[in-house]
Amino acid sequence: MPLDLRAPSGPSTQIDVIGLESDIALGIECKSQERFGRRANFAEELAKLAQTRERFSRAANASDYGGTHKRQVAFAFFFSGVELGKNDRERAEAANVALFDDRDLEYYEKLVAHVGPAAKYQFFADILPGKVIPGLEIRVPCVRTRLGKFVCYSFPISPEYLLKISYVSHRSKGKRSDINTYQRMLLKSRLNKIRQYISDDGTFPTSIVVNLDAKRLTFNRVKQDSSKEEQRDSGILGWLDIRPAYKSAWVIDGQHRLYSYSGHPRVKS
Questions:
Q1: How many whole angstroms separate alpha carbon 172 and alpha carbon 166?
Q2: Closest CA to 157 of 241, 218, 216, 252
Q3: What angle do CA 11, 3, 264 make, to 5 degrees?
Q4: What does the pLDDT look like over 210-230, one tens digit per residue?
Q5: Could you give the C-alpha distances from 59 to 17, 42, 48, in angstroms and in order?
Q6: Closest of 133, 153, 158 to residue 142, by C-alpha
């Protein structure tokens, strides 16, 4: 079902690629040139796309498309054979429109080949860097403890949810180094073996360890039977509220167990 982007009085607007997830709505314009060079009318194309944001958001969040909360809207341009200057990039940033090119496409294709459907969450993170997504907010039962000077939280959560916010690479030197890190830290042969183990009703008795920014967490303690100091030190019961962005949980241990669920029928378990 296509999105209706018609203005109340005026012509309809076409967006080349539209993607709807439960938490996000993507609008992507694709432009290509036979000869590599500047795009003279980029400013006009950018302004036209940005002007459709309100209508796009209204259409993407219409009742016909389901959802229990408002989707976060993101716009992007994909360019092939186009040289973008500093001013072009600054205009796009001011308009809140992401820019991608052939090198970016190659990176995402390699990432998909390696980790499967969960790669899309890396793409979402690059379009909405650090943006808190209302649909990702969750409350889970939790035990708070200490490990040396660190505060630790133990809680149950589904692989489907954790894959949305996780990553295994601190990308600091560009996408080439990032994909190399994924390939080094996630062995495809091991992922395939664990996927088969999951299919054979295998379970994991140990936890996956992630690092989350404390600013994204709120712990609410619940009443316990005893207030003895030794019991408080051994664990405090409560509810943990998580307000994450895409790519906000760094997986320290358990990468293979988690990413083996990428695309697996039991990812919601």
A1: 16
A2: 241
A3: 155
A4: 999 999 999 999 987 665 555
A5: 15, 25, 17
A6: 153
For tokens 């959560």, name the residue.
157
Alpha helices (H) in the chain, listed in sequence order: 42-50, 53-60, 86-94, 102-115, 119-127, 159-165, 175-185, 188-199, 229-234, 255-259
Total-model pTM: 0.84
Judge whether 75 and 24 are in contact, CB under 8 Å.
no
Q: What is the pLDDT of residues 110-155, one digit of tens each?
A: 999 989 999 999 999 999 989 999 889 999 999 999 988 889 999 9
- DSSP 8-state class, residue 132: B
Asked if residue 10 lies in contact with residue 48, where contact means CB atoms within 8 angstroms, the answer is no
Alpha helices in 101-251 (DSSP H): 102-115, 119-127, 159-165, 175-185, 188-199, 229-234
Label residue 181 by pLDDT band (50, 70, 90).
Answer: confident
Please name the amino acid found at residue 261.
Y
Confirm if 56 and 8 have CB atoms less than 8 A apart. no
CB 240 within 8 A of CB 161: no
Q: Which amino acid is at 32?
A: S
| Alpha-carbon gap, residue 211 to 247, rounded angstroms | 11
Cβ atoms of residues 101 and 144 within 8 Å: no
